[in-house]
Amino acid sequence: MRRGRIFPAIHLAALVVAGLACGPGTARLQDETPPAGLTPQEAEPPVSVTEEVLDFVVVTHLEPEFHFYDPSGGLVETRSAEGLGWSRPNTAQVVGNAVYYVAAGDADQGEVVRRVTSTGTTDLDFTRAQSFSGLTFAVSAEGGRIAWTKTDWDGQAPFSQLWVADVDGASPILVAETDAADDIAEYYVLEAVAWLGDGDLIYAWQVTGIGGYILFFGWSSLYRYDLATGVAVALAPVEMDVTAPCWSDMTPDGAYVLGACGGPAQIVERAAATGVETLFPLLPDQGQAGAAAYSPSGDGLAYAIARGNPDDEAGQVVLLADRGGAPTAIARHTPGAFDSVFWVDKSRMVVGYWQGEQAFVDMLTIDGVRSPIGAGQLVGVHLP
To answer: Total domain count for the chain?
Structure first.
């Protein structure tokens, strides 16, 4: 492992979000059973049968709050996001009717994964780090399990660990940790990424110390961990010549991964079993690419491209209706760019974009019909 100065974070082009006023909506979220291990007092109250059940709800981060919007742009409710300065994947996540996020306090409080619902806030104290550690996490879709990472930056090189437990902290398992004898360079640290439907965990060795005009988030590698066997296999292994995070999604079964790993401007799909990669052709005004996301079936996908010119930025959303199809731009935004894509169903997605120092969220259909939803940095979508 190489020795040298390590920087304790990935430096991305963060956006400062300014608040916009929206009128409160009358609908509310459909409540769900709380994750296993949480006390009955933390459960959400039942929804009245007279209240509207929403198609879906979009969650944004508009500091210092989370905003919940219905599809037409009505503000359903707000919740505290105290301690969250900037949200990105694995620092904020919508799970059912709850939002989990990394809350940072002062030097004595450190960082902790926090769960906020419409009735209150709970810190998952077993995840707490007493100082800055670059804490990341991923909660399973049903809310029963959590993976989280901690990194110690006090030594000459960072020491990183990945843990898994029930969401109440029971049955902790150490999945992986830094090993001075391996061939992973010191400037890579562990990050929790996502849970697959079969219960396997996706995690990454993430490169740190990246700076510059970077519009899109991604992971430097992707590994699949089988909790039953304790075996990890590489979906997209660490490549020492990869100098930036680039992978951004995987199919629901983990068979394919997707990202801007053909260079900062080019999207590539990789078959996990064979390692065969397919490069998607460049489109006009494609200087950077990212935010790639598979449709719910895993057959279609969408991603964002940008001009890559901070003085004259323009962004587009690109659709591939099915694997093997041709990429087609279905939305354009300028000045600014799209930076996140969440699929709602096979024909609709929610896209985040920025303009100046403000961030916004729109609904976008695969036919290119775009309608505004609200303000803030896109965190996720709640499907009642």
So the answer is: 1
Q: Is 319 helix (H, G, I), strand (E, B) or coil?
A: strand
pTM: 0.85
Query: Taking CA 341 as the corner, what is the angle to CA 331 and CA 30, rounded to the nearest 5 degrees?
Result: 120
Range of the domain at 124: 40-382
CATH of the domain at 357: 2.120.10.30
Evaluate whether 85 touches 63 at the Cβ level (below 8 Å).
yes
Does residue 347 lie within any of the structural domains?
A: yes
Residue 34 inside a domain? The answer is no
Q: Which residues of the chain have pLDDT under 50?
A: 1-51
> Where do we find the tokens 């985040």?
352
Q: Does residue 217 lie in a domain region?
A: yes
| 21 domain-assigned | no
Separation of alpha carbons 242 and 88, rounded Å: 21
Query: Distance between CA 304 and CA 281 in Å, rounded?
Result: 13
pLDDT, tens digit, for every residue of 315-358?
999 999 998 889 999 999 999 999 999 999 999 999 999 999 99
Q: Which of 71, 85, 70 lies closest to 25 in space, CA to CA?
A: 70
